[in-house]
Specification:
Layout: E1 3-10, E2 16-29, E3 32-46, E4 49-59, E5 62-71, E6 74-79, E7 82-86, E8 92-93, E9 106-107, E10 114-115, E11 118-128, E12 134-143, E13 148-153, E14 158-164, E15 170-174
Parallel strand pairs: 8-9
Antiparallel strand pairs: 1-2, 2-3, 3-4, 4-5, 5-6, 6-7, 9-10, 11-12, 12-13, 13-14, 14-15
Amino acid sequence: MIGAHTLNFDRSDPCGLVVRVSVDLSVGIGPIKLFRYKHRATETWKNGQVVSVVSDTDDNGKHVWVRALRDSAGLVVEASETARYVAPDDALPATHWNRKMLDGPLINTQTGQLMRPHVTHEGEDRIPTAEGREIEADHFAMNGDASLDTWYDTASIWAGIMFKAGDGSQVRYERV
């Protein structure tokens, strides 16, 4: 295991939802760290619509951020590496927990880039969990702006993801 991806759902507002995403990855040999990744994102939803996204990322020493806020023009996205734009009405943050993200354009929460990957349903799989069990899950492949495989269980809850890291190594998230 090289790290953890944690989701925290706060439903204390009856009309809203706050989702906090924490990703911490570290690869090393003994005490020597070769790679570190830290990502924090907070999504705020009201009445089923995303109203803000705030994220900060440290990708092995490179710091980037994204800020998106809904106003009268729509969801306005600003980022350290992307020009300001108004996202399409059906755009969702690419934070994976929400299966609906497969249906429309995505906002990359690390770069702010608007992505329109091609998504195909690859069928049902039995996939491993971090606890050594297997679960049934629908497999989806994304290609284009984003290239990865993702799985959602029979209740449409995110169950896992697999992608190639920048160095070509394969990364697989397994649900606890």
